[in-house]
Write a structure and sequence with these properties.
By secondary structure, this protein is mainly alpha-helical. It has two helices and two strands.
Length: about 70
């Protein structure tokens, strides 16, 4: 009984910590990419923009695949 309560407490805490770590890590990577190339063809920080676009597309495609896999029509 005590073991169940202990895991019920730590699982959400670890998920929140992992999410915060992922958000901070991605933010740091985008900031580092922004400093590599200041401007290209009138676009400021083009590598950071491309990385953010790629990350958003990966998340959207992944969410679409997950959403479709649950449906049995």
């Amino acid at each position: 009984m005590q073991n169940r309560l202990f895991s019920a407490l730590w699982v959400p805490v670890l998920v929140v910590l992992a999410t915060v770590g992922l958000i901070v890590g991605v933010g740091e990577l985008l900031l580092a990419a922004a400093g590599i190339r200041e401007e290209l063809g009138g676009v400021k920080e083009p590598l950071a923009v491309l990385a953010a676009l790629a990350l958003a597309l990966i998340i959207l495609v992944g969410a679409s695949v997950i959403a479709r896999s649950g449906r049995k029509a």
